[in-house]
Specification:
This is Alpha/beta hydrolase. InterPro entries: AB_hydrolase_3, AB_hydrolase_fold, GDXG_lipolytic_enzyme. One of its GO terms (molecular function) is hydrolase activity. Keywords: Hydrolase. It is built from ten helices and eight strands. It has one domain: Alpha/Beta hydrolase fold, catalytic domain (Rossmann fold), CATH 3.40.50. An eight-stranded mixed sheet has the order 1-2-4-3-5-6-7-8, with helices on both faces. The protein has 279 residues and is of the alpha/beta class. The protein is 36% helix and 21% strand. The chain is globular. The relative contact order is 0.15. The N and C termini lie far apart (40 Å). Helix 5 packs across helix 6.
């Protein structure tokens, strides 16, 4: 593809338009605030000493350990935070599931290698310290939107767990939404102004190109009206993973599809609950 074609395929900001995109981002924060109002949890917990980054734990009630959904926010690795990213917490709490939403250092302050390390460190924190916060370390499900889907994919991949002292099956299931799994095209669009990747580094950071010694159950979700690049990414990675299903959510775009995770009656919400309960 030409650089112009790649920009059309992956520049969802341009596809949506500034006004619509800003409305969606405002909804992330507003719905997150509504979802966690009065919800039991632990806020601003440090999970990674090296970076000082923190996470929020939502939906634990002190009555036994709950399975946990770790959600990595999107924003093309250079925007957003955990404050806009807990909109599924109340719905999951009502279904007996806890939610963990980590921050990570944004590009260009951090390299993508460092961002991936932090995502994996968040998983390691849940495994090591989850019990102290009402989380079941043996029932960890990961997910994320867009760039967060890429980070979920990097925790699904194999051969990193040993370096963190984790079992190879620490991630029991996954649900990336509009994820990026082969990020080599990103080196040729505006996002690379922040990431500064070359193709070799991008390949090393692409879940679709990494070994997977164990393929956990997964659901790959994408919006019907998503960017063409994101549709292609999920359609290619799902059969490669060979242990998951593909869902194309009708009447949704790149920005609003993930909000369905907060609705227990939506296709995405029901699928997430079923996925977590099955682990």
């Amino acid at each position: 593809m030409s650089d112009e074609e790649l920009d059309v395929a992956y520049n969802v900001r341009r596809k949506a338009g500034t006004e619509l995109m800003e409305r969606h981002l405002a909804r992330y924060r507003a719905e997150s605030e509504r979802a966690v109002a009065g919800l039991p949890g632990h806020l601003g917990v440090g999970y990674d000493e090296a970076s000082g980054e923190r996470l929020d734990v939502w939906g634990v009630d002190g009555d036994g350990l709950r399975p946990v959904f770790i959600f990595f926010h999107g924003g093309y690795w250079f925007a957003l935070s955990r404050e806009e990213s807990s909109f599924m917490a109340r719905m999951l709490c009502e279904q007996g599931i806890a939610t963990v939403v980590p921050d990570y250092t944004l590009a260009p302050k951090a390299t993508l290698e460092e961002i991936v390390r932090q995502a994996r460190a968040a998983v390691a924190w849940v495994y090591r310290h989850g019990r102290e916060h009402g989380l079941d370390p043996d029932r960890i499900v990961v997910g994320g939107s867009s760039a967060g889907g890429h980070l979920a994919g990097m925790t699904m991949a194999g051969r990193w767990q040993e370096r963190f002292g984790l079992p190879g099956d620490v991630v029991k299931a996954a649900m990336p939404v509009s994820g990026l799994f082969d990020i080599r095209p990103i080196t040729r669009i505006y996002v690379n102004e922040y990431l500064r990747l070359d193709e070799e580094r991008a390949a090393a950071l692409s879940p679709a190109l990494l070994p997977a010694d164990r393929r956990c159950p997964a659901v790959f979700a994408v919006a019907e009206n998503d960017g063409d690049g994101f549709l292609a990414q999920s359609r290619r990675f799902q059969p490669h993973w060979d242990a998951g299903d593909l869902i194309v959510v009708p009447d949704r775009d790149h920005f609003d599809v993930v909000l369905d995770l907060g609705d227990a009656e939506s296709l995405l919400g029901r699928t997430l609950v079923d996925l977590v309960r099955a682990v």
